Amino acid sequence: MPDTTAPLDSSTDREPLADLPGGVAPVLPFLYVAWADGMLTPAEIGVVRDRIAAMDWLSERDRAQIAAWLDPSAPPDASTYFGWVRTMRQAARRLPSAEGADLAGLGEALAGLAGQGDGAGIPAEARRALEELEAEIGVVGEEVVRDLLEAPAPPEEERRAARPAFSVGALQSLLDAPHAETRDRIRDLLSDPFFAYPEPGISNDAYRTLILQWVQRLGEEGIGSLAYPEWAGGTGDISRFIAAFETLATHDLSLVVKFGVQFGLWGGSVQQLGNEEQRRELLPAIGRGELLGAFAMSERGHGSNVRDLQTTATFDREADEWVIDTPTDHDHKEWIGNAARDGRMATVFAQLVIDGEGHGVHGFLVPLRDEGGAVMPGIRIEDSGHKMGLNGVDNGRVWFSDVRVPRTALLGRYASVSPEGVYSSPIPSAGKRFFVMLGTLVGGRIAVGAAANSAAKAGLTVAVRYGARRRQFGPAGGPEVVVLDYLSHQRRLLPLVATSYGLNFALHALAEDFAALDADADTREVEGRAAALKSMASWHATRALQEAREACGGEGFRWSARIAHRKADSDIFTTFEGDNTVLQLQVAKGLLGGYRQEFEDLNAWGMLRYLREQADVRLGEVNPLARRNTDEAHLLDPAWHRTLFERRERTLLVQVAARLKGRIDRGDDSFDAFVEVQDHLLTLARANAERLVLEAFQDAVERVEDAQLQNTLRLTCALYALEHVERDRGWFLEQNLFDGPVSKAIRTQVNALLGRLRPVAVELVDAFGIPDELLGSEIGAGRMPLDP
Amino acid sequence: MPDTTAPLDSSTDREPLADLPGGVAPVLPFLYVAWADGMLTPAEIGVVRDRIAAMDWLSERDRAQIAAWLDPSAPPDASTYFGWVRTMRQAARRLPSAEGADLAGLGEALAGLAGQGDGAGIPAEARRALEELEAEIGVVGEEVVRDLLEAPAPPEEERRAARPAFSVGALQSLLDAPHAETRDRIRDLLSDPFFAYPEPGISNDAYRTLILQWVQRLGEEGIGSLAYPEWAGGTGDISRFIAAFETLATHDLSLVVKFGVQFGLWGGSVQQLGNEEQRRELLPAIGRGELLGAFAMSERGHGSNVRDLQTTATFDREADEWVIDTPTDHDHKEWIGNAARDGRMATVFAQLVIDGEGHGVHGFLVPLRDEGGAVMPGIRIEDSGHKMGLNGVDNGRVWFSDVRVPRTALLGRYASVSPEGVYSSPIPSAGKRFFVMLGTLVGGRIAVGAAANSAAKAGLTVAVRYGARRRQFGPAGGPEVVVLDYLSHQRRLLPLVATSYGLNFALHALAEDFAALDADADTREVEGRAAALKSMASWHATRALQEAREACGGEGFRWSARIAHRKADSDIFTTFEGDNTVLQLQVAKGLLGGYRQEFEDLNAWGMLRYLREQADVRLGEVNPLARRNTDEAHLLDPAWHRTLFERRERTLLVQVAARLKGRIDRGDDSFDAFVEVQDHLLTLARANAERLVLEAFQDAVERVEDAQLQNTLRLTCALYALEHVERDRGWFLEQNLFDGPVSKAIRTQVNALLGRLRPVAVELVDAFGIPDELLGSEIGAGRMPLDP
């Protein structure tokens, strides 16, 4: 069992005892004995107090302080008490021989270490007074000292009350940056009883009503319109909106999804694809949550491949209208949020057709229901039915049959059609237009990635706090051990905590870069990062919530632990806003093409040229010394971590390019060639995401000014890096990037890092800053009672 | 895209064409042309029929058959048609040159391959007649032959209708052995509308009522008492009971858990811990589902560490009674199935105390409710509350306060107390007694492992069938591709299918061995295997259901897919009946101690001796040639697979023994030493389970008599083996058990196996034999309509 009180950096053992209270040092052992479990009666504590009050070699101020600490009816707080314990343990370890030391001796030694009497000890009278007191209260000092050295770690609750080596608030500020005030606003809002979680057995209908009320309240509070222009009640800052979304996701996930549908997808489609007139007309009411709407893109047969959507919008020149149609019964819109019950309008994505000529997928404003809530003529809506989770969201299926909307219902920022039926667009290429349109999904992907990480953080908060309290098994005859003190338990939880930290920094940096893009910037790098991090974060959430559930055992299965709820709701995060596997394949293709263009748009020769560029890059030899270096300093070196992650990504890129080139050179169809190397493409995309996270994490660590905090974060980052290298060590070994002994040393080092981070594990999740009201977990509450 | 029509084993290409219908061989190309999409009109088909009817060189029987096949109003069934296609493809590939062959020529070649005319071809008049017919119907034979060779694979639905190379029924029989008839009985029973799934929004109360009715019906049908003696309505065969349990688990998991509580845990505790009188009195009513009861072992603070249960049963000599007490409010029984609502009695596990002396944990028969359902005096019961899943089971918390039961309420097989308060037991050691008592859980562990595998099979059935129908993306301008044809999709599903096969064989063998144990056999090997396989199977279920959900995309999130339900319900399988991590640590300790005794019972010297035995074993050098051999034959060699799995387990065992020995030699506390090597212990336990599964799988393959079937299973087993080696290749590389090139070749070989198994993927899951009524999945039904 690791010593949970050991400082993170063992070098501090050689520094002065920080916690040692100068003047009271000699009597510290008596203060400890007075309050140690069951050692003294209240009456005996009173005796100690009276004796010490009479020791006039102590300063008056010290005596007053000691008397206050020895009031039998008012024990010191846990933080103070464990401060004494920590100090005495540190001191006792430095004694030339702890064997045989009594309380008076320990007190004298403490005084020496505290610098009293220039290390020459305390006055002889003082020493005598202490010895008398020791005899009077009848404790065997040697035993006390020995117990002190061997005592089990203080219970987690009390340990937490003790001052950590850094401020949890400061750590939370790092995670909250750069929109701490927006996050705090959400935390405050959602802590209101109005947002209290419903009972678990709630009907879908009542749940939807509740979630709708919540969403509308957020609209009233101006949260929904954060990303909109100021004239629409917003701040024009998409990054602030994403921060709000991310924080909402520490609460009920039906709320965050319905919120995202209304303000992000529906409102976002108007904001980003609409012309000035459309935006002025609709955005303010959308932002206030008054005009509820849907984003009708996915179809039954086309969830991922939206370029081939089947819904048509055909121009009727006579009527000056668009005619929206669902060609067959199977081509209906599917999973459309806000459609089954609440939506009044929708942005419907359809193939724009004029005189039999298709211009590709475009968005159209289509009313779904009238003022009274009746579905409009020609439209059929069905409920998507009961789901694994997110049953507070009214997903629906929509069919269109000869539904007519005015010519001006075409969202007009990137396309317009004249009354004569002449199509025009500022973007001439249909392919490019399609990608610009899909670009509207990028903000949603970043937000979903961040929300997934919030769900992961919530689950890990519950599991780490519970693990720090739950006792099970223990040494023969001894007390049971807190389960987080088991290596197996640390192994399952702490690397996930580290990954949530890394994703936090990477997603926040991405949101800022996304918000900073100007209108004609090349968006592909940001889009690629969004796809990579959305995949990684949502898979991370699935894994973290699974581990959290299992780590809490049966308690994690209880609804009131609020892991089940988050697990079921967030499961679909790996699928919606872009299926993770499809996104990863896009990421890999983007890396191969240098983000120049989707491969489908290239002919074989164009593709070959790019692949050749990639495959021709030579990778230098790896330094044979580095390959065999098992020194701890080397293993913990951030630069080495970065080299490994970069090298892996680059090598995979070159290898997959060479494979593709080989296949296409010999005449394979490019589609088949890509299918055959899919496993390599997925590996490449994963390596890319993990490298992005490492870089953002390391950059964040570098920016920290407080040394203690920076040290903790550096270790957390090293845990992220090494645990990921360990998981993929098969690849590194195959490629000779390091040898077997290094691989084994990495495993040992991961274990060592777990031991070093264990003492601050609870602080690491406390810094996620999830209020108890939002966490909603009985076993995970921050202010939980002590285990009996 | 892999060629889905390639035979599984290329060597069969050199064997006779099994499907070639002898006499009709020469006209086969015309039969094909007649029915191939859009090639001939009904009138032209009539012409072909009339011409062939006149070919008197054909036998009369063949001509009648051909005429039947060429009835324009009655097309042949898909199975027949695709049989022709397959035969001709095989034949066309063997032609010296397919280029330029016309229909007549192909027919002649077919006849030759079928052995007509001793390979000398068909009569010249016949050849002429065929040429004339070819000219008359006006098809270009060369094109037909070329299309035939290049034709895309038949649509999945039609391919499935075609006769596979082996019988799905025969494959299912292998999986069902040795209790096929019991399984079929359950399948029939549960296919009755009485067992139809409830609506998803059902209240917990209604759900519990439904599940209770189902359990009682199974009791009436004699399913609950299968393991009991014949006088109690059973067969005395625990393995048959486990088979029933496993099959039930392909349906609603609340049912199987409540069934397990009633008949396995409650009834099982009476059967195994009760004396003859207690068994005669209670078992028949329990088995019929009339006397509902609970198994009250777990406590809030003691879910895993049951040796330290807090509930006490104190002997009151005066009253000749036991007094059952829950010492503090926190020591209540927790998660007790059947307790919250339905249970009338319980086996309560408590510390047996006589005159202040404890004799360890024992089971006591305690009435929970009276005839009217009122809770008995001194007992307090609360509902365990809403759960992630299994809400059809009434789990409860139970407190006892001065609850009195007669002296004879002590379950009396292994312990009894005389009226004078003298304790006696046939097992003198308290530690041994404790393990014998825990042995009652072993059957439950095997059953839970098998049930977990059933849940995994159900999820995989849904995902594989759906993946074989769902189309998404495709080559430019071409049709969209069935997603199961993507390597990435095969990668996520097929290895899991292979693992379910392996677990199936391993768990069935284990159930047989368990059932065959006689009363005084050493049970530790079987207990160790049960712990290892329960852990592996339940984690496998969690993973398989997660992958199944994701592989089905949004459709998998729908309740009607019936993945959500299984996922939520089975999540706790990794925790109950022994937490997986705790079980794995026990497995590892068992391996270290040669199953001699739990380590806690050994003193440091005893432990050292065992560790030394293990650590002293020398592992021979690995053959350097084998380390570098990348030949396919070597990579697919079952003996090599077994060597790798055995070597890994043995090496891990020796290494962890050496580590422990080092720590204990230097004076570490044994508890701390074990905690420090926990990660190694868990790795060892995993390696052990995977080896057990490989062995059982290979043994099962060896026993198969049908060559085609055996070949398919051998490839499935190789996929299991190599994919597990690939996942753990980091370890194998670290240990120099193979080199980097072999590691890469393994990955390539896994991909090749996926391609070879893809064509039978649907048959592999069909053979799990889950009727649509039990599967309960809209998208996973076996008789699903073709995708439009």
TrEMBL record, chains A, B:
Matching Gene3D superfamilies = Acyl-CoA dehydrogenase/oxidase, N-terminal domain, Butyryl-CoA Dehydrogenase, subunit A, domain 2, Butyryl-CoA Dehydrogenase, subunit A, domain 3
- What are the residue boundaries of the Acyl-CoA oxidase/dehydrogenase middle domain, all occurrences included? 294-403
The cofactor required is: FAD
Q: Where in this chain does the record put each Acyl-CoA oxidase C-terminal domain?
A: 643-781
Q: Which intervals hold domain Acyl-CoA oxidase C-alpha1? A: 439-592
Listed InterPro entries: ACOX_C_alpha1, Acyl-CoA_Oxase/DH_mid-dom, Acyl-CoA_Oxase/DH_mid-dom_sf, Acyl-CoA_oxidase, Acyl-CoA_oxidase_C, AcylCo_DH-like_C, AcylCoA_DH/ox_N, AcylCoA_DH/ox_N_sf
Query: What's in the keyword line of the UniProt record?
Result: FAD, Flavoprotein, Oxidoreductase
Q: Where is the Acyl-CoA dehydrogenase/oxidase N-terminal domain?
A: 213-290
Domain of life of the organism encoding this protein: Bacteria
**PANTHER family recorded:** ACYL-COENZYME A OXIDASE, ELECTRON TRANSPORT OXIDOREDUCTASE
Entry's family note: Belongs to the acyl-CoA oxidase family.
Q: What is this protein called?
A: Acyl-CoA dehydrogenase
Native source species: Rubrivirga litoralis
